[in-house]
């Protein structure tokens, strides 16, 4: 298979190591990866702010970059969900290409568990780790079960983390609580966002986490800012970096 690597703009600008870890991990697993160099923002920030009608140029470019690929994979559940639900072509004859992309784009852990069906990894990370279940991934992409449902629990990210040698996955009191980032929500409602983030951080700290991980670097960026302001030694690390680690 040939996989197009979709790296969200904020990862490209602020956390390039996450992009590199994603690429290395996929290649280690035998995937043929291509990276379209002309990719930019997928348009999610505009759409979240009520301006989805201004995102067509982003859609057009995305289709141009990722057309004719078997799969598209990204280390960001929120951006993947945006493409799955909102990508459409400007011209009717190009809509089949947009439909193909919507059906073939996957968040990284989703791709590893559902498509590659990974059962073991050669990774090592001897630390106590707290897993943050981001809302877009959990409630949109169904990467993990919602605790309010009377249903069999599951978590695709946790399944992969349990394959990592030496990693101790800690239990949290509120395992699927929102961190408060919410994209543009953290700008429009900064006080509420900050308080939610502090509560989320405290849950991890109370249970002895050395690292906080997740499948969305945007949420982790929010938590990282709070940790730094609290002068905490706890670090955030995207799940791709842990699954690719040999520490």
What is the topology?
Elements: E1 2-5, H1 9-14, H2 16-28, E2 32-34, H3 44-48, H4 56-66, E3 71-74, H5 77-86, H6 95-104, E4 105-107, H7 108-115, E5 128-132, H8 135-140, H9 156-161, E6 168-169, H10 185-188, H11 190-206, E7 211-214, H12 217-229, E8 235-238, H13 239-243
Helix pairs in contact: 11-12
GO molecular function: oxidoreductase activity
Domain Cysteine-rich: 3-84, 129-223
InterPro entries: Cys_rich_dom (IPR004017)
How would you briefly describe this protein structure?
The protein has 247 residues and is α/β, with parallel strands linked by helices. It has helices spanning 9-14, 16-28, 44-48, 56-66, 77-86, 95-104, 108-115, 135-140, 156-161, 185-188, 190-206, 217-229, 239-243, and strands at residues 2-5, 32-34, 71-74, 105-107, 128-132, 168-169, 211-214, 235-238.
């Amino acid at each position: 298979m040939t996989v197009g690597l979709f790296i969200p703009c904020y990862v490209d600008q602020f956390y390039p190591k996450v992009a590199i870890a994603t690429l290395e991990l996929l290649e280690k697993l035998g995937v043929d990866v291509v990276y379209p160099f002309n990719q930019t923002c997928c348009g999610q920030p505009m759409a979240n702010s009520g301006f989805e009608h201004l995102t067509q140029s982003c859609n057009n470019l995305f289709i141009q970059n990722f057309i004719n690929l078997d799969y598209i994979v990204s280390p960001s559940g929120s951006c993947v969900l945006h493409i799955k639900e909102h990508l459409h072509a400007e011209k009717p004859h190009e809509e089949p290409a947009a439909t193909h992309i919507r059906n073939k784009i996957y968040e990284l852990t989703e791709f590893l568990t559902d498509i590659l069906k990974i059962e073991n990894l050669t990774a090592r990370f001897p630390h106590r780790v707290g897993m943050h279940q981001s809302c877009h991934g959990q409630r949109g992409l169904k990467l993990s079960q919602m605790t309010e449902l009377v249903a069999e629990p599951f978590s695709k990210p946790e399944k992969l983390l349990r394959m990592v040698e030496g990693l101790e996955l800690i239990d949290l009191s509120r395992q699927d609580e929102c961190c408060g980032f919410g994209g543009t929500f953290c700008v429009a409602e900064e006080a509420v966002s900050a308080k939610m983030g502090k509560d989320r951080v405290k849950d991890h700290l109370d249970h002895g986490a050395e690292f906080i991980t997740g499948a969305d670097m945007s949420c982790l960026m929010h938590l990282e800012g709070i940790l730094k302001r609290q002068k905490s030694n706890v670090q955030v690390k995207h799940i791709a970096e842990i699954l690719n680690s040999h520490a």
